[in-house]
């Protein structure tokens, strides 16, 4: 998000906005969220408000960026029929999207847009008996491997920056073969 916002701020860049896309896929069933579409999606926007507050050292940074049209937030549920030009499209938690859902996002890209998929196949909440679906991230990565137009970056354990505790936890899980 930081790199995307820096690129958008560069006057030489053709990118004009950051579009954050997530699926409305809860990790546990909590029932239906009340309210209209905007109110339902606010819970999924919360992490980006925190990130922007840290980046810009002000609590209202995310809301200001949205008001200025620099950031847009969308659910995968309402993308059909749109074309996204001159934007950086950040698809977050994409391990929780089915192949068709990811395909819908990818095929919305227009001129001068950049796609960033963020996801961790080990944190897939979609592939389960409960949802009877499968994450599409691995299949999308297979398609990307067949393309010459893009670059993929896959982070490893040594790239973890959340905290030393989390890094140690994941290393221990890996040693035990739990993940």
Description:
This protein is an alpha/beta fold and 179 residues long. The protein has helices at 2-9, 37-56, 61-67, 99-106, 137-145, 164-176, and strands at 17-22, 71-75, 87-91, 114-117. Strand 3 (87-91), helix 4 (99-106) and strand 4 form a beta-alpha-beta unit. The mean pLDDT is 88. The chain has a 4-stranded parallel beta sheet with strand order 2-1-3-4. The protein is built from 6 helices and 4 strands.
Helices, by number, come to 6
Shape: globular
State the low-pLDDT regions, or none.
none
Radius of gyration: 17 Å
Portion of residues in helices?
Answer: 25-40%
User: Which strand order does the major sheet show?
Assistant: 2-1-3-4
Sheet having the most strands: 4 strands, parallel
The average pLDDT score comes to 88
Report the strand count.
4
Relative strand content:
5-15%
Given the helix and strand composition, which structural class is it? alpha/beta
How would you spell out the order of helices and strands?
A: HEHHEEHEHH
Protein traits:
11% strand, 179 residues, globular, alpha/beta, four-stranded parallel sheet
Summarize this entry quickly.
By secondary structure, this protein is α/β, with parallel strands linked by helices. It contains six helices and four strands; from the N terminus they run αβααββαβαα. The model has no long low-confidence stretch (mean pLDDT 88).
């Amino acid at each position: 998000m930081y790199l995307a916002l820096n690129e958008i701020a560069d006057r030489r860049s053709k990118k004009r906005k950051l579009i954050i896309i997530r699926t409305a896929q809860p990790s546990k069933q909590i029932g239906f969220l009340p309210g209209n579409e905007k109110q339902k999606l606010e819970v999924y926007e919360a992490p980006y408000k925190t990130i922007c507050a840290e980046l810009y050292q002000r609590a209202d940074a995310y809301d200001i960026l949205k008001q200025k049209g620099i950031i847009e937030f969308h659910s995968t549920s309402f993308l059909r029929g749109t074309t996204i030009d001159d934007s950086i499209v950040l698809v977050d938690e994409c391990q929780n999207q089915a192949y068709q859902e990811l395909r819908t996002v990818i095929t919305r890209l227009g001129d001068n847009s950049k796609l960033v998929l963020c996801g961790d196949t080990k944190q897939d909440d979609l592939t389960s008996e409960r949802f009877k679906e499968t994450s599409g991230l691995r299949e999308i990565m297979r398609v990307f491997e067949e393309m010459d137009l893009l670059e993929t970056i896959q982070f490893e354990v040594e790239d973890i920056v959340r905290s030393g505790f989390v890094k140690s936890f994941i290393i221990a899980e890996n040693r035990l073969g739990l993940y």
